[in-house]
Write a structure and sequence with these properties.
- This protein has helices spanning 27-44, 52-75, 81-100; strands at 18-20, 23-25, 106-108, 112-117, 124-134, 137-141, 151-156, 162-172, 178-184.
- With 202 residues, it is of the alpha+beta class.
- It has 2 domains: 18-100; 106-184, Beta Barrel (Thrombin, subunit H), CATH 2.40.10.220.
- It has a 6-stranded antiparallel β-barrel with strand order 4-5-6-9-8-7. A two-stranded antiparallel sheet has the order 1-2.
- Strand 8 (162-172) and strand 9 (178-184) form a beta hairpin.
- Helix 1 runs antiparallel to helix 2 and helix 1 (27-44) packs parallel to helix 3.
- The radius of gyration is 17 Å and the shape is globular.
- The relative contact order is 0.12.
- Bound molecules: zinc ion (ZN).
- Zinc ion (ZN) is lined by residues 7, 9, 12, 14, 25-26, 28-29.
- The site of zinc ion (ZN) has 8 residues, from helix 1.
Length: 202
Amino acid sequence: MAKTEPCTVLGCEKAAAASLDGVSFCQEHFISTCYKEIDRYAHLVREAGFRRTAAESMHHFLTECTRQATDLSQHAEELDNLARARLLDILLSAADLSRHLRRSPRKVATLLLRLHCEKPGRAWEEETKTRVLSRHGALLECQHPAQSGDALLVLRLDSGRQALARVVWCHQKEEGRREIGIEFLDCDNFWELDWSVVETTV
Ligand SMILES: [Zn+2]
């Protein structure tokens, strides 16, 4: 999209950085709009009358929000740490909501893991640690060039527990360092936390 386009929020004079449904937003208003919509859908899905039409519009929003947030987190030149953390949080929330129809809390925690990728021709394995946990996934550091959609076998070095996960996004940092978001495919509470008492720490 054209970078010269202005943000459509009334009174905002910043340049557009992303869009949702054809409506352009600056970085800040994109983030706040995504949070607003994620919260709105998170409430909506809990209501008894959540209908197919609402589910379709939610799916459409989450798909677009994920695409735009990934793009913004990878290509925006001026992205401070807070904005980046928020974009990654939006990505985790969108993955949660689209897959489990709920948004779960986040917990900042460092757990040691071994990741194993068996992609033909470029299998790899590494030991790494988590940065943020969510009920259905995590944000991790990763040295290898993981790609969205890759399947990973995740082993907890503390408990020996393992599960299959899917890479839901990658963020390339400086000097080859990389963060990835993963989502578990076959495990409901891999971190063995009581999520009903976890307060969001991001
Ligand atoms: Zn704006």
